[in-house]
Write a structure and sequence with these properties.
The complex is a heterodimer. Chain A is α+β, with helices and mostly antiparallel strands. Chain A is 19% helix and 30% strand. In chain A, α1 crosses α2. The longest helix of chain A has 14 residues, at 61-74. The model of chain A has no long low-confidence stretch (mean pLDDT 93). By secondary structure, chain B is an alpha/beta fold. Chain B has helices at residues 2-20, 33-39, 42-52, 57-78, 100-114, 127-130, 138-149, 172-185, 198-207, 209-214, 226-239, 246-261, 267-288, 296-300, 304-308, 311-318, and strands at residues 90-94, 122-125, 153-157, 191-196, 217-221, 243-244, 301-302. The longest helix of chain B is centred in the N-terminal third of the chain and has 22 residues, at 57-78. The termini of chain B are far apart. Classes of the chains: A alpha+beta, B alpha/beta.
Chain lengths: 139, 319
């Protein structure tokens, strides 16, 4: 099951040229670029691992792309996303975030039903991949 | 197969552009160099360089070469002849005050206008910003600077400090290796300019042959002649909204000749310092006579006494 998180996630995967163009757009807006990765695809998992520090003061996407490539090389079987952070007062938040790498196979989620008092059912989802320990989920 | 399709694609887009601009179709087997020249801003850039920088013949001629190369590269692209991007890394050597830093700062905007670099920013660094203080500190530091410089020019002033021959375990070597790797693999993203005094740069290149061979343009900045120094002084004064009176100009010609014979002469930098001191003396002279009503002309002009009060003249009279 294809994970759809962040911008562009319903489109086919972006090519490097497209990623680079998006980063250029973010830099033109004055946003800082950060690269993050994770192997836990749960939609509520918002704290991904940081790949190095966020990159302030970049002028060109080439610099950020070297980090994207380096992260892909080190973690080829994880989700990698590019965040663009807007430091403007009033925003001070991520303005753009999109996935630039995903595992070859994405096994999807198990829907769990939990019966509670009065035949009520609480639903939750659990990623099949996350059943394996961290670091061995998409081998 | 891939090679065969790529040029076709670029050719059609070029044609489409030409059509959109209303200039008619460009035949794929020939190019109009003069149209390309007019389209690019090469002439404008070169004229600006000629008018704003005095002397520096070797530098200007090399920039002319590079500009010509750009035109031909564009023409080749139109014909679908794809070649690797040319290496533009440079090394500027020369005595103090010969304009190395000034040209380096300017060359980024030149390369940007000529379309060789995408952004045209200059990241100016010295050893401190590249080399770390402990093990594992250098690589991230150097890489961060490189990332900031991507799409523009990385200017390393006094580059020979990167290499400390007396200390084998100096972290400078690590920075050099990272630089070399990026200079080789990402030369379309980044232009590296090294600058420093001639003799020490020679030693630096001798101990790092990799650097020497990866730099395509070794440009030597000559010392300025007396006439050039005078022209530089007048240009500087003009920028500061001052001017020499005829007497002061005569005196300054003598000043240049004398100052050149004295130790620690550093070309245009010495001239700038001399002018700054003359401005001080002029201000002092004007303030001394408070009753006078000054015209704009009085405030703008440097007089002969402002020049002649210099220590340069008094030293020679003592000797």
């Amino acid at each position: 099951m294809r994970i759809t998180q962040g911008t562009f996630s319903f489109l086919p995967d972006l090519t490097d040229t497209e990623v680079s163009a998006q980063i250029d757009y973010a830099l033109a807006q004055g946003w800082a670029i950060g690269v993050e990765y994770t192997d836990d695809p749960h939609p509520r998992n918002c704290y991904w691992e940081m790949w190095g520090n966020p990159m302030f003061d970049l002028r060109d996407a080439a610099g950020a792309m070297t980090e994207v490539h380096a992260c892909r090389k080190a973690h080829p079987h994880t989700y990698i996303r590019v965040n663009a952070f807007d430091a403007t007062r009033g925003f001070e938040t991520t303005r753009l975030s999109f996935i630039v790498n995903r595992p070859a196979t994405e096994p999807g989620f198990l829907l769990k039903r939990h019966e509670v008092g009065g035949r009520q059912i609480q639903y939750t989802i659990e990623s099949y991949a996350a059943q394996a320990p961290e670091g061995r989920r998409y081998e | 197969m891939h090679d065969a399709t790529a040029p076709m694609a670029s050719e059609t887009t070029e044609r489409a552009k030409a059509d959109a601009a209303g200039t008619g179709t460009v035949p794929p087997d020939r190019v109009d160099l003069s149209a390309l020249l007019a389209d690019s801003r090469v002439t404008e850039v070169l004229d600006e360089l000629d008018s704003e920088l005095i002397g520096l013949k070797p530098v200007k001629s090399r920039i002319r070469d590079i500009a010509a190369l750009l035109l031909i590269e564009r023409a080749r692209k139109q014909l679908g002849l794809v070649g690797g991007s040319p290496s533009l890394h440079m090394s500027f050597t020369g005595n103090p005050g010969t304009g190395k830093t000034t040209v380096a700062l300017r060359i980024a905007s030149i390369l940007h206008k000529l379309g060789f670099v995408r952004r045209g920013q200059v990241v100016s660094v010295t050893r401190d910003e590249l080399v770390g203080q402990y093990i594992g500190h250098t690589a991230p530091k150097t890489k961060e600077i490189l990332k900031k410089a991507m799409g523009g020019v990385l200017f390393i002033d006094e580059a020979y400090y990167l290499h400390r021959p007396d200390n084998e375990r100096d972290y400078g070597q690590e920075a050099i290796e990272i630089l070399l790797q990026v200079m080789e693999s990402q030369r379309e993203d980044l232009v590296v300019i090294l600058a420093g005094y001639g003799d020490r740069m020679d030693k630096f290149f001798a101990s790092n042959p990799g650097f020497r061979s990866r730099i395509a343009h070794h440009i030597d900045f000559p010392d300025y002649s007396d006439d050039e120094l005078l022209a530089i002084a007048e240009l500087m004064l003009h920028d500061m909204n001052y001017r020499f009176s005829p007497d002061a100009r005569q005196a300054f010609v003598r000043y240049i000749a004398l100052r050149k014979t004295q130790p620690l002469f550093s070309n245009a930098r010495s001239i700038r310092n001399a002018l700054d001191r003359m401005r001080l003396r002029q201000a002092n002279r004007l303030v001394a006579d408070l009753d006078r009503v000054l015209t704009a002309d009085d405030i703008m002009s440097l007089e002969a006494p402002d020049v002649l009060a210099s220590r340069v003249f008094s030293n020679t009279s003592v000797e």
